[in-house]
Design brief:
binds adenosine-5'-diphosphate, 6-stranded parallel sheet, about 20% strand, binds magnesium ion
Length: about 700
């Protein structure tokens, strides 16, 4: 990779990269193709000059005018102020950052060309920080592209880099068609033609059509992108079908772990649970690695489904690993499951191994030995802990809970790790990959499932266990806190328990902590004689456990906490949840939190306390989120609305991995193109494998791994 993009000899030490070069690299813009596919997100019209009298408030314009005055003023703060006249009107220019050469360029009497946003304040027209050039230069003949960029990467630099990349890619015929002509979408532009156009559109073209991406050149780019996504996923799916996984046959033996677990369960499975259990059981009994997402709303009963899958795996003589995102969740979430399974395993000489970050070395080593010997049939921990240096004797099934917490890149790393750490003495010589079951309470909306998760089989629990009462959600202004505390008092006298959740302030863990401890203090004072506990991420593990167990056992009436209880905690007697600064939480997060109540038979409620922002109002997205919470309890509906509010990149956690998955296509708009791509992908892989490979390489380069995760 060293020296890429330069013509210097290979023997020479690579030159250190400049800041903009590094920035390009960070954005993944390495190859000419990547640069050529880095498309503008808007355009500026520098092809013409306008008159000030024709410019409306807020227009981005280019004018030529003569400088009438120019001086540094100090009120309200130091700035360079100039007045120019273009013959139709005058305009005041303001610069808060300026250099001596700027004053020179704006000497009285000079003819200048200015570009910037015109504001029509009551003091006359103004422009803040316009660009200044000498008047009379050539005007642009195409619209000027504005590229997605970063602080270290000036537009002029990235523009030049893109132009260079585009020219080079076109010269090397990198954009020759990969899609067979008879399969192109109707009225399709050529790819090279489309790219050239989008980087340098003619001034006559409608800016609106360019910016909302309905122009045929954009359509071609979107089609290409969607096809790349579908191709890479289909390919991953086919590759997986060729891999080997242990056959975890369903055992009908009444002595088996599965039969005994079923007999010990204190409830009947719901129809939906029975259906997904059968789907998973079927997958496990095949010699192809399962890659399945189990989705079901909070409280829908995913844990027991996991337990049954684990039992089937253990009956077949293989180990099962259970992972949650954090230690406290692993413990909270799997205690019940282990409580069901451990008594069944013990007579068979099998054990459960816990792997936690807070374990003493000696204990951990003992656990690791159990795992390596195969004596531990079930291995429970956080996914970080399990990944770290653990050797399984024969891992047959990995179950990851609360999958939505993991980004795409993390999932990929996990799969890789699991297949690396494979079987010391596998029954067959060929490498085996374990089955993978992911569980999530944040359902993936259909549009996303069809495009991003095509490689994933999905099982859905769409029914809650009987006897649940709907949770009533109330929005309450922070100023009415006292009424909320009164309500808590009433609940406590009825023997109920209460969660009080404080927001996590990302910029400052210290602040986050103070918030929780202040609230804890205030509630202790307001509720004398009641045990009020506090739980936050900075507490030592042992202390967290102690607090949690007091709450689980019912001695503690109120638990104040940061979002550590977000997922997985199961205390049926808790019937009220107060979420402070609810306006700061994401929608899925709020829904997850709310799911902690309404687990028992008592009528449950969730109070969303909100504080108005600086301007005495909530932001639009905060208002939308809170409204959605008050309007629906349905996780699928919530997920759809969340997707609308946040967009797919953030929804899927792709941001963390640095790979924006779909850059141009919009699944809400481009359904016809998605259908086209889904239809074409298998045809391409079967009949045009060479073009398909080229297509994936062009679009995804090194990134295609992200899509397989
Ligand atoms: P989640 O899907 O959010 O992980 P859990 O697995 O924690 O939900 O289940 C929530 C609660 O419902 C648990 O207390 C669990 O024991 C109980 N539960 C699960 N399935 C059933 C069922 N079929 N009937 C009654 N209760 C059930
Ligand atoms: Mg759960």
């Amino acid at each position: 990779m060293a020296g890429a993009g330069t013509s210097e000899g290979a023997a020479q030490a690579p030159k250190p990269l400049s800041a903009p070069q590094k920035a390009l690299r960070k954005m993944g813009l390495l190859r000419p193709v990547d640069l050529a596919l880095h498309l503008p997100f808007r355009y500026e019209d520098e092809t013409r000059l306008v008159k000030l009298t024709d410019a409306r408030d807020g227009d981005l314009v280019q004018i030529e005018a003569v400088v009438k005055s120019c001086q540094v003023v100090f009120k309200p703060r130091r700035q360079l102020q100039a007045v120019v006249d273009d013959g139709s009107d005058t305009c005041t220019l303001r610069f808060f950052n300026f250099y001596p050469n700027m004053q020179k360029a704006l000497e009285v009497g000079r003819q200048v060309r200015l570009r910037g946003e015109v504001r029509g304040g009551f003091m006359g027209r103004t422009m803040m920080h316009p660009t200044v050039q000498a008047a009379g230069g050539l005007l642009a003949t195409a619209l000027t592209p504005v590229y997605p960029s970063s602080a270290e990467l000036p537009q002029a630099y990235i523009r030049k880099a893109v132009q260079g990349g585009l020219a080079q890619a076109l010269r090397s015929q990198a954009f020759n068609d990969t899609i067979p002509a008879q399969h192109l979408p109707p009225h399709s532009w050529g790819l090279a033609q489309g790219l050239q156009f989008l980087h340098h559109p003619a001034p006559s073209v409608s800016l609106a059509q360019l910016e909302d991406k309905t122009h045929p050149a954009w359509q071609r780019l979107k089609a290409e992108e969607l096809l790349a996504q579908q191709l890479s996923q289909l390919q991953a799916k086919r590759e997986r079908q060729l891999l080997n996984a242990p056959v975890l046959a369903h055992s009908a033996s009444p002595q088996g772990v599965l039969a005994q677990l079923r007999a010990a369960l204190p409830f009947q499975l719901t129809q939906a649970q029975q259906r997904v259990v059968a789907e998973i059981a079927h997958d496990l009994a095949r010699a192809v690695p399962m890659h399945r997402l189990l989705q079901g709303d909070v409280g829908s009963g995913k844990t027991v489904v996991a337990a049954l899958a684990a039992a089937q795996c253990i009956d077949a003589g293989w180990q099962c690993a259970l992972m949650a995102p954090t230690e406290i969740l692993a413990e909270q979430h799997f205690t019940k499951l282990v409580g069901w399974l451990a008594p069944v395993l013990a007579p068979l000489g099998l054990q459960v191994a816990w792997l936690t970050g807070s374990q003493k070395k000696k204990e951990r080593d003992a656990m690791l030995a159990l795992v390596a010997s195969g004596q531990a049939a079930l291995v429970v921990g956080t996914h970080a802990v399990i990944q770290d240096k653990v050797q399984f004797k024969h891992l047959g099934l990995a179950i990851i809970d609360e999958q939505h917490r993991f980004g795409v890149a993390q999932r990929l790393a996990l799969r890789q790790k699991l297949s690396d750490s494979e079987t010391l003495d596998a029954p067959t010589a060929q490498a085996q990959e374990p089955h993978l079951l992911m569980m999530s309470a944040t359902p993936i909306p259909r549009t996303l499932a069809m495009s991003y998760y095509d490689d994933l089989d999905v099982s859905t629990i769409d029914e809650l266990p009987p006897g649940r009462t709907a949770i009533v959600t109330k929005l309450v202004a922070d100023t009415r806190r006292d009424e909320v505390i009164e309500r808590i008092r009433v609940q406590l006298t009825e023997g109920r328990q209460i969660y009080w959740v404080c927001p996590l302030i990302e910029e400052s863990e210290a602040l986050d902590l103070r918030n929780a401890t202040d609230t804890h203090q205030a509630l202790c004072e307001a509720l004398p004689g009641v045990m009020v506990g506090v739980l936050h991420s900075r507490m030592p593990q042992a202390e967290k456990k102690a607090v949690m167990s007091l709450f689980v056992q019912g001695q503690m009436g109120v638990l104040v906490s940061t979002t550590v209880i977000e997922v997985g905690v199961d205390v049926p007697n808790a019937s009220l949840m107060v979420i402070e600064h609810a306006e700061r939480f994401g929608l899925s997060q709020l829904h997850q939190l709310r799911g902690r109540v309404g687990r028992g038979a008592a009528a449950s409620a969730c109070v969303l306390l909100y504080a108005l922002g600086e301007h005495g109002r909530l932001s639009d997205t905060a208002r939308e989120r809170l409204r959605a919470m008050a309007e629906t309890n349905d996780g699928f509906d919530i997920a759809r609305r969340d997707l609308d509010i946040r967009g797919p990149g953030e929804f899927l956690g792709a941001r963390q991995s640095g790979a924006a998955l779909l850059r141009f296509a919009d699944l809400n708009v481009d359904t016809a193109l998605l259908d086209w791509a889904k239809h074409l992908a298998p045809i391409m892989l079967d009949a045009y494998p060479e073009q398909a490979a080229r297509h994936i390489e062009r679009w995804l380069g090194g990134k295609s791994d992200f899509l397989k995760a």
